[in-house]
Fold:
Amino acid sequence: MLRFNRSFLLLSVFAVACYGQTRVPVYVYYESLCPDSAKFVNDQLYPVAKMFKNNMELHLVPFGKSTYQTQGSEVMFTCHHGENECYGNKVHACAIQHIQGNSFQPNISREDLTLDYVNCLMARAQLKDGEFPTKVCADAVKIEQWQTIEECAKSTEGSQLLKQHGETTNKLQMPLSSVPTVAFKQTYDGELQKLSMSSFRQALCKNLNPQPVQCFDLPGSASAMSSFGFFITVVAAIVSRMF
Structure:
């Protein structure tokens, strides 16, 4: 029993080393009809966020280089890629607000569904074949709130939500120097921005300490492996003294 307890302790400490990672806040500022935003979301953000879901606190900010003016209770938007993008940005803002988990998918979180939905919207909206893919993507990723999202996007609520994303964007940069923009811990860094566009996974790993195993095959990851090896050596030494 004593040997079992000691072995269990070793496995527990090892698990903490592998999985007890700090979640880094990642803010992605993008536009619904921007080809560069779509490429980044589909090719980099989506697969990396799935791989590092326990290491990222993802904040999606659909506003980009838009501007707005208030007229009483009304908010008037001018968007980088035209009026249709303003509507698309509202759909994204409303989706982020209203998507909920499904009882028949208990292992899929609200955050998972939101990312799946946004990934689909970014891919299909670029096709420009008819209506904005609000329902098409809801059917594809199995979310139930598409009508709520659509009603929100066409109402004052959608305008207010988009305005909030505009305020968040303007706090970072006014206007953004490029779209999409990635900011770790809501702080702009030109070098990390450049790296994020070429390798978001590498930029993310630079902001994780300790680095998870998903980072170990990246350039410059030898130091992480060295630190991990040192930790295992120390744990092994401690456990050896217990036996």
In short: Confidence is low (pLDDT under 50) at residues 6-19, 222-243. The radius of gyration is 21 Å. The chain is about 55% helix and 10% strand.
